[in-house]
Amino acid sequence: MTITPREDSLLNDILAASGQAEPLRRISVSRRGFLMAGAAAAGGFLIGFSFPHKTRAMATAATVNVFVVFGADNSITLITPGAEMGQGVNAGMAQVLAEELPLDWSTVKTVSAPYGPQYGRGASKSQVTGGSFSMRGWFPLMLQAGATARELLLAAARQRFPDAPAPLRAEAGVVKDANGAILAPYGALAEAAATLTLTDPAPLLSQTRGYQVIGQKLPRPDLKLKVDGSAMYGIDTRLPGMVFAAVRHCPVLGGSVNTIPPAPAGTEVVNLGNAIAVTAANTWKAIQTARNLGVTWNMPAAAALAAVDTASLASQAQALMTNATPLASGGTLAVAETVGDVAAGMMEAKKKVTLTYSLPFLAHAYMEPLSCTVRISRDATGNVSACEVWAPTQAPDWVARTVTSVTGLADKTRITVTTTYLGGGLGRKIEQDFITQALKVAMAVNKPVKLTWPREDDFARDWYRPSALSRVQVGLDGSGNITAWSNRVVSPSLTRSHGGVPANGLDNISLSGATKLPYAMGSRLVEYVEQMTGMQIGYWRSVGESISCFVVESAIDECAQTAGIDGYAYRRRLLAANPAALAVLDAAAAQVRWEKPAPVGRARGIALSVGFGSLCALVVEMMSDRAGAPRIVGINAAVDCGIAVNPDQVVGQLEGGILHGLQAARWGRVSFDHGICQISNFGDYRMGRMGDTPPIKVTIVNQKSALGGIGEVGVPPVAPALANAYAALTGIRKRSLPLGI
Description:
Layout: H1 5-17, E1 45-54, E2 61-70, E3 76-80, H2 89-100, E4 108-112, H3 134-160, E5 169-171, E6 174-176, E7 182-185, H4 186-193, H5 206-209, H6 223-228, E8 243-249, E9 256-259, E10 268-271, E11 275-280, H7 283-292, E12 296-298, H8 302-307, H9 310-323, E13 333-339, H10 342-348, E14 351-359, E15 371-378, E16 384-391, H11 396-407, E17 415-419, H12 433-445, E18 449-452, H13 455-460, E19 468-476, E20 482-491, H14 494-497, E21 524-530, H15 543-563, H16 567-574, H17 579-591, E22 602-611, E23 614-624, E24 630-640, H18 647-666, E25 672-673, E26 676-677, E27 696-700, H19 718-730
């Protein structure tokens, strides 16, 4: 592999952003064995490692690269492949690297990689951050990168100091001899190390001594930047000669621009099809001009508008639930999972219950509004010759594809995508609509442009979490055991919303968590019916898991009630053959001493979530206040994510996920009236406040051997645990979200 002049420029940009200002010179990297190369100037060196890696989805080997910069100031900068949107992935990866390459943690810096296949993972070279997969995907590669760097630095030290007492060792950013004398810092050895190769993979010290850095509560390197305000988010980007743009979309879904009046002095207006963009000297002027411009719109037909209405969509879902016919006969009813004979199981049942649950569309409601900055260069003929994009994106490789699609620039080496910090992503910032718009505006005005969406457009044109209607039919024997479980899900398809066609009529993301349940069941049938809504459906923190967990864990609780068994004890019975899930369930229950009756006036609800390679159980405690209103008094969680790279980050992600889940469970809903979104800003979309936040306690169990994800696992069990607690407190079962409590 050769780092090209174009890549030189990209690396210089990201190093400058991280405080490593020394330039890099072009380097060549051998493909033989584990690869290492240096780029030197004033003592700064870039070192790249390339490893064979098999993706989970396919058995084809792929090359995965890890890049580390040894600075002239003895700092170490890790160029991480993932997007940093608050989940701590950059710090986590640096901590894994430091397990095998002993570092002075105070010298560590991290930056997110720009677009480039060399930073991708798997056969597709994907740079997408999502599905709580970053640490799971990169953990073994970061360990091996640290070990390889350590061994090459030691080899370089042995060449430079042949008389030093052996054995040499790497420690806290320096190489020492056997007597503990410092021979040289890593930065002074990196250039020589870059010329060496290893004939065999470097040994992992952690395999013999155990983890010494992983598992520590180390401070995140990015915290100082975020506290002092120097962290650069997408909305902070500034370029020389830049103009500022704001969008205004058609007020109804499916509408388009009809006429645009002349632009006021000092502004330009660009027709984006379903929206306009106004450029001005600052964002505020652009927003106000766009808002007040007398644009006329082409509206969809009245029948189309009536179909995009909350009440109409609910009626449509109910009709699909009742009348769907099998896919094989030309209908829309697809089978997602079948285990055993459900019909026979129902015949054997002594008791039967039919339960229907509904969930609304949800907005992402992140902190940083959508923004994208673009600078386009043209050649002498007027064609686009280069394009630079700065964006808070979860998918820089997708952005590069969008650049090619919009500008026609096929040469990917002429496309630069710099991933800034994300002020929250939650799945929304994987989408390309705001990127596409910024590119179109930049091409139209021939100036660098930063485009920002007003908050009203963030809500009105979100890629919403799907709505869902789910009917569960359960048969129980005389002891309360489940003889049959049938779950039919009616929901829009994320696959179709992103231009695909659901394979075999199934949308596996929407169904995530509905199949392969951890509980013992005699027979099981899961069906899916796609609802065509015309809505933009997108990835939302935990997506299908947040839907399925509410349905499954509410239904399990109702089965326990029907059987006359305590909800926790009932789950223990159904999990007898699943010790990992049982351990997490027990850990959450132990926090509230579930074996003892709840105090008078209090009630508890419990729920279990299995997803993203992790297990999470949650107990919600409630009581009635003096006015008789229910109040949450505490939430206790237990999680098994296999390895807690940084326990503080695990706890923080669980707490954040729980708060996110609480907001959605209690108040989250996006509704529509004839194509018009009824949410305009946070005043219409209640968020949790300090006073709404109960005490939260998190216990890390970690009995699994495999590393699991952590960013999304805290969200799904919140709604069912809260609904189960409310039912225990009041005797009222709520089967529709939001719960409004």
